[in-house]
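Lab channel / #folding
Pinned by the channel admin:
"Please post every new chain as: sequence first, then the structure tokens as a reply. Keep commentary short and put observations after the output so the thread stays searchable."

First post following the new format, from NK:
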Amino acid sequence: MSESLIEFKGVAARIGVTTILRDIDMTVGPGESLGLFGANGAGKTTLLRVLATLLRPSAGSASVLGADLNEQERYDIRRRIGLIGHSPALYPELSLLGNLEFSARIAGAPLQAAVQALQDVGLGGAASRLAGESSHGMQRRAEFAREIMLAPDLLLLDEPHSALDPSAIELVEHIVAGVLERDGAVVLVSHDVDRVAPMVTRAAELTAGTVR
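Reply from TO:
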């Protein structure tokens, strides 16, 4: 097993017949936070999908948390990966608490941890509100609560400051710091270089599907 939590060599990825990523070389070690910047359409979200094991590489070798992303073992690491995408990924028909309890059951975490996590992000009084009837900002906070509860080894963030009120911005820094303190890794994509810079240990640019 590589000491790196992420190791890509010559990785490419296609969606349909279109090649989105090409010749990606990248390593991220324990305790590192990598900021990826680039214009719309550069492939940032696609790269996060590959890292999250949601999209298989079409070429090259890719290892995440010691698992080969071209092999069945990639499914074994999904519970160790946290992903907060550009749009909230919650079940709209469940309450905010219900969404977290669902994640807790899958991960084998105590249900009380869901209650505590919502309190940690300032949503203790909104636990019973349906996710589909909650504001984007509240849904975002609920996703942060989920990652606090699950404590992933790899955290992937896609424009994490989107739709956040100023009081919630510190939550992003808190979650990133928690992962790094556990010797996990973070990959964060954003357009906001100034806001993200304090949270990353190094940065790279994704241009035309390639990291530079």
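NK: Residues 6-211 form a domain with the Rossmann fold fold (CATH 3.40.50.300).
TO: also worth noting, The CA atoms of residues 136 and 163 lie 6 Å apart.
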